[in-house]
Amino acid sequence: MLRPVVRPTTLNLLEQLTPSLVSRARSFSQPAENLKRNGTPTSSITTRGPRKAKGPLVDPDLREQILAASQSRRFLPSASLTKFNTALAQITEATKAHDLLGALKLWQALEDHLRTLKNSDVRRLPDSHVRDLHKIFVSNGLTALRTRDGKALEKTARDFALQAAKHHSAEAVSVLMVLYIQVENPNAALDFYNECIQVLGPLQPPASLIEESKDANANSSLPKGSDFGLALPEEVVSPDHFDPGRVSAVLAGVAAHAMLDNFKSAFDLYHSAGISASSFRRQHFLQYFSQNPKMEKKVRLYIDRVIVASIVARPISFSKHIANLADLQTIHKLQSFYNHVLDGIFGPEPYLAASPSLLSSSPNLLAALDESCWTALQTGFIKCDRVELAAKVWDDLARAQIKPGVAMWTGLLDSHARRRNSAQAVQTWEMMLGEGIQPDHLSYRALIQALMDDGQMEAGLKMFKEYQQTIGGRELEELGRPVYNTMIHGFLRRNQIEYAAHLLEDMRKHGPKPDLITYNTFFGYYGRQKDFKALSGVLNQMSESNITGDVVTFSTILSALLTVGRKDAPSTVMNLMRKHGIQPNVATYTAIIDAQMRECGEPNLNAALALLVKMEKEDGIKPNEVTYTAILAGLYRGEWISRQKADLVRSKLVQRMRAERVSFSLTTYHILMRAALDSADEQGHIDALDLLREMEDAHVPRVTSTWFILLAGLMRRDKWDAAHEVVGKMINSGHLPSRSLQLMMKDVFANYRAGRVVQQMH
DNA sequence: ATAGGGTTAG
Questions:
Q1: β-pairing, A352-353 with A367-368?
Q2: Biggest CA-to-CA distance, chain A
Q3: What is the pLDDT of residue A431?
Q4: Which positions on strand B lie below 7 Å from a protein C-beta?
Q5: In chain A, what is the straight-line distance between the N-terminal and C-terminal CA atoms, in Å?
């Protein structure tokens, strides 16, 4: 008996553990690799007997399994074997020559031959060949298959695209669909799409990659269980792998409906696929229409609208999407997304409803924004300091004749609290009441935080009492606790330990029961006070209540120990955390890195930089702007290394922050500006001005310190023209200069004028 | 949602 055998040595031990490799071996992937190198069949499909697994290579159980698998393999007669190997070599050759039609013909012949054999179902073209052939299918298909010879191969092309979709990528499917669309037969594209779904099952990514869909809009007009209902055979897609080619196929389906002017069907097809096309995939797909701008325009319009509608139709993913984009680097994307949404509501062809109740007002409306969507937009804009955009959300709500609910108002209150603007918060509160909105726990919490953090303790206390007497019942544990915790935090910020301790006692006796956050707040306070006796007292209370610490607890205690110079703190606390099974996070590492930098020595700098690498490499924790800022600040704290060395490390770190797209905070900008202006580099002030421009572009607010750092530095360098320009920018930004800034401005004007006079004399 | 890590006081 002749049997194909796979050389055991070519199989990596680890890979032997994965079932997919056994099936690959069955499909002759191994000899295919050799063919690729040599161009001719090799001896790796041999006529030798069954291989013997070598002794210590695998454990006995596993070896049994492998043997069993190899013996259950179907065998090819030697004539077929030769034929098979020759065909492989020919396909490889045609593929290399980018001869798509030739390769498809050979592939068809091979398939026909294999089909005549018994049990042929387990045999097919090796994956590496499928991949290579698929590649030229995608790059040449649109032109090659349009020719007369190509048209003759339509059926073969369809079969291959399907097989490739099953085992590698559905991109070829989308190419064929695009071809049908381009020859103005969109219905053929949709037929093929449906045929693919019959075979492949839903074109969905594995559950782990899609958002929870339980939030599906209650008013959604989506048909339940559309034609994506077929289960997927296990071996077709491994659960952790998702083929981006499937996104292209879905987009091709949308494009086909676009050609039929059927927006509703385009949406249904896209939405029920459960995918989310990235802008990269969208761009990639649209390239198929680069020769036909008119078609491209229409397809782009459909795809954009369908993507927006599909996100709106799932409020939770809507909020997540917004939160992801609410970042200085991506705010422009959030803005453009919002503009798309507005166009969907107010544009000439509305397809979105501004509220669920309006959804039924027109059959063209596919999805509705609910209050959480509007709130998410507001929160996102506020997070990026784009107050004017947050205000626009309110205007747009008014335009849609929707009255903002309590969550919208609370978003405003939160933003005032974050800016410690209690006056604005109180004003907002009164407007809210004026609108007849009933405040809830969250809005009371935000108002109290705004008051307490802005030094309005009396008023904060008053509101807290009002809260307790109105909706803040003691029994409302989960709802009321954040309000109480905010109150405690407010007291402790102002070092009002008696009030805080009193409230804690009250909570222990009457509820809401203190929780981990309550205790962490106290840890923070006692840590700042360097009162370790009191700190261990809280620790005892906590364990009495059976509450265990978390990363925040340990990080807080760690930085307390570090500020009192306990060098052993990092190792001790980290070991303790490990013992408790608590993973350190960015804050933990940042605390240690900061402490190293405060030592002001070259070895400490090296230790800090080593930690920066270690946290990411070993623990997979990405440093953030606080981490980098801690190092940058340390570089310029005192004169413990040369300016040149400090500047070198700074530029490397800045480079890395940019590469990693770490956002720069106000603090980061201040430190970098100061460093640039203090640098020995003649051009340092140019760097500082560039940073100012960057802040403007990113809408990072410029505060008194910003202008002070810039003006003081430029004046020190005698750069009066630049200083004059900065003063102009300050005035234009609407900043009201403090007394000391006004004095500096005077100085700048005088020297600038003097400089002009001198220039004119020459 | 509320707690922890980075600037400096002009």
A1: parallel
A2: 105
A3: 94
A4: 1-8, 10
A5: 102
